Amino acid sequence: MMEKRYIRKDKSIVWVNLTGSLVREQSGEPKYFIAVIEDITKRKLAAQKLKESERRYKELIEAVPVGISITTPEGKSLECNSQAYKIFRYKSKEQFLQVPVSDLYYDYNDREKLIELHENEMLKEFEVRYKHKDGSVFWGSLSSIKQKIEDRTVYINSFQDITERREKEEELRLHSEIMTNVSEGVHLVRLDDGIIVYANPALEEMFGYNPGEIIGKDIAIINAPTDKTPEKIKETIMGILSETGEWHGEIKNIKKDGTLFWCFANVSLFDHPEYGKVLVSAHTDITKRKKAQQKLIESEMRYKHLANEMEMILDYIPGLIFYKDASNNFLRVNKYLADAHSVTKEELSGKSLFDIYPQEQAQAYWDDDLEVIKSGNAKINIEEPWDTDEGRKWVSTSKIPFFDEKGKVTGIIGFSFDITERKKAVEKLKESEEKFRTIAEQSSLGLIIQQDNKIKFANRALSNIIEYPLQEIYDWKVEDTLKIIHKNDLPYVKEKISEREEGVYEKILKYECRVITKSGKLKWVEIVSKALTYLGKYALAITMIDITIQKEWEEELKEISKLKSELLSRTSHELKTPLVSIKGYVDLLLQVHYENLDFYTISMLHEIRRGCSRLESLIKDLLETSQLETGEIVLRKERENLSFLIKFCLKELQGLANIRHHKILVNIDENMITMFEKERIYEVIVNLLSNAIKYTPPKGVIKIGSEVKNNNYIISIEDNGIGLSETDKQKLFKKFGKIERYGKGLDVVSEGSGLGLYISKGMIELHEGEIWVESKGNDKGSTFYFSLPIIND
């Protein structure tokens, strides 16, 4: 406060009393200066001029962007601007001025503190908690000066709502507390020079530094030397951060004492109020995990060797062994089966019965397979004729359903053994009783003839199987033969025997059961019984085959099938590791040594990189195929807009379409909202669109449409490309069902794994939708459709 003289326009002098107050920003920086000028030339002439002064004063305080109020020491509000009562959430000035000043404070002692500061003429600016009209509390910054107006002491107050600033300060304090106490090692690094400006206690302990010791050091000090220097590692990571804003991955670090260890680091950019642009890096020690991974790799190698050994065993089994899916496609066969059809195992894989047998014969075999698939019941040792170049042969075929973890039949495991010789032996037995006995004695089949409740004949093979001497067997009554049957199988065997006793004596009975040999061994046998005439009288001939090894094979085949899926998944994961290394080194060469390479080398590196990308895509497809087969995929559906996803995919593929000079026409609903997993449906749309682009000759037209039908969104992708034959359509959605058009003069792109549509079909069906294709034939274009159910919740 001061008195000064000023000169009026008419040159007369006027005395004024000048009072000023500095208003600050929330950061504390000066914002502007408020000045109050009081004309004190003559009090008698002040009335009129005071009125004008008050008007201007009110306009001034009204224009100030902070709350202004004039209060008395007794706690009454005399005047305020609109900002003041709005801060306190009152509707009008009149309403605000009626409220006692003390009621505006959350803590009445803060009001007393203000009066005390005024009385002692101390600093009168501080932060205080106020109350809104509704009683809610907020923080305010208060600046107050004491002033005399017309011989009356008043307080001129200015205040601002600083609740948001206080919350941010509290948030920063909380973040600091969290940084101090988290288990991960966290540090901040200045982006411009790579100097560590902050490290939490966990990081200091992790790297073996004393508190504060690592501050001010270059970030390269914690990078362990590998094939790159610590400085080069730093440059690579910071270069990626400058472009993308984030980096995460495994990195080899070094402690203060030189100990090497592995960390997983998450690094991102952050604008720090004190340090400017910094890298925020969180390190997690993964040394134990890396050691566990190494052990897993070694274990997988051992498993791989075991799998190879099992493959070799299967190849040398003298029988036809196969594993097929529920769509009639061979997934795995042994060498014996492939040789029987004069092809390799690889050539037979993926083919169906209709690819290798005449239509009528293939249909009969497939109908038999379907019985097993639909019923879930195995067919064991079914004798079937087999026509070969050498004439008709007989095989004993067993088909076992393969179930996934949900109990669904996903395929069948089958094996067939050539029993032609055994069939011939049986025929010869019918020629004469004399020949029958001769052959029976030499046969490898266990044979017993029952007649008149006695054992009339038993051969050495039977004795060898059940380990009872022939003489003891001849002393048995017919019912004594049941004593060797395992007790759990006895009811089943009696049931089979009763079938003959109920009337059809000529019926051939065939069944399997377990027997207990005289030495106590458990064996599986196949028993075939048939009525015949022996020595002129009715008799029953029973053959017995030891199928214990065959049963063990069945169990091994089940395990092998399980191992097959695991092998596919693990092998794909194994391929990814060297692939990432190759791709990474190629990228490094192109980024770091580009200027030192000649054009030919650069072209070769780009070709390697493209090959890596293709192989990477194939591995991804193989992994997804394996997951589809084993049911490992669990959808994470969310409420999404299918229209937005289609447009996003189109934008990504527009460059490829432009290269092919295609015209793309889009006619879809703007809002197709339903529940689906965006990443999975993205794969489906990109696959269908890219196929349309690649398999349509240049300057083609691709149309994308949508419709709603039966509470489903149906998406169509139509092209005027190469079209599809009926044969093409049958194999299109199967594994490796790729349509080739080489050597036909068509400008199309046919690269790919042949798994895309198979995976797409699986993904759509997981969403309870359907996928199909329509085409009028070759060179007449195609239209692919897929549907997704409309789910509102």
Task: Please give a structural write-up.
The chain is of the alpha+beta class. The protein has 6 domains: 160 residues, PAS domain (Beta-Lactamase, 2-Layer Sandwich); 104 residues, Beta-Lactamase (2-Layer Sandwich); 102 residues, 2-Layer Sandwich (Beta-Lactamase), CATH 3.30.450; 125 residues, Beta-Lactamase; 78 residues, Orthogonal Bundle (Helix Hairpins), CATH 1.10.287; 152 residues, Heat Shock Protein 90 (2-Layer Sandwich). The chain contains 23 helices and 30 strands. A hairpin with a 5-residue loop joins strand 21 and strand 22. The longest helix has 45 residues. The chain is elongated, with a radius of gyration of 45 Å. The model has no long low-confidence stretch (mean pLDDT 82).
Q: Beta-strand level of the residues, as a percent range?
A: 25-35%
CATH topology of the largest domain: Beta-Lactamase
Number of helices: 23
CATH C-level label of the largest domain: Alpha Beta
What structural keywords apply?
alpha+beta, Beta-Lactamase, PAS, transferase, 793 residues, phosphorelay sensor kinase activity, Sensor_kinase/Photoreceptor, 5-stranded antiparallel beta sheet, 23 helices
